[in-house]
Amino acid sequence: MTRTEPSISIVPANEASCEDLQLIFGTRGIGSICQCQRYKLRPREAFASFPAEERGHRLRVQSDCGHPESRTTSGLVAYLDGEPVGWCGVEPRTAYEGLLRNNRVPWTGRTEDKNDDTVWAVTCFLIRVGFRKRGISSALARAAVDLAREHGARAIEAYPITTKEVILEELHVGTTGMFARAGFSQVSQPTPRRVVMRIDF
Hints:
It is a single chain. By secondary structure, the protein is α+β, with helices and mostly antiparallel strands. 26% of the residues lie in helices and 24% in strands. It is built from 6 helices and 7 strands. It has helices at 18-25, 29-34, 52-63, 97-101, 136-150, 176-181, and strands at residues 8-12, 75-80, 83-92, 119-127, 155-158, 185-191, 194-200. A 7-stranded mixed sheet has the order 1-2-3-4-5-7-6, sandwiched between helices. Helix 5 (136-150) links the parallel strand 4 (119-127) and strand 5.
């Protein structure tokens, strides 16, 4: 008797249903609080200043979930044997206002044009409890590279954590090993715990 390996499939978030997307983000924990809005907050906005329902609404608008005909989306959705299990935030770097306002990650020691929308960014991952450590984040990282390339990006960046002593909440940015396996190379280290990794197409 042979063991069948689980099948991971990944689609742009607009091709996923909004119900599948919200199943991944859940109703408890950091995902349900953030709704992938950390780098989307507007000036002087904070999570405490508007309800989680509004953040969920913004995610649905940004991802354009449920509209497979759309040409734009803010991420990828992973399925394991047809079950929605993971999310990856990826789109042009200019879409992340909070990232552009940040003075350290990813800008310290670099001369990048912050307004260059041909550079894409991978900002976060969220894997449902019970489905972690199955290679889903790594599959999403590889798929993010393909998505950026298909949309004409000239480069894609990520900002993973470096230390082995990782706080669970920090894992949303991914790890250096995961991105290295997806073909990214380190280009800078703006903080002791964070690096910039990149692929130039």
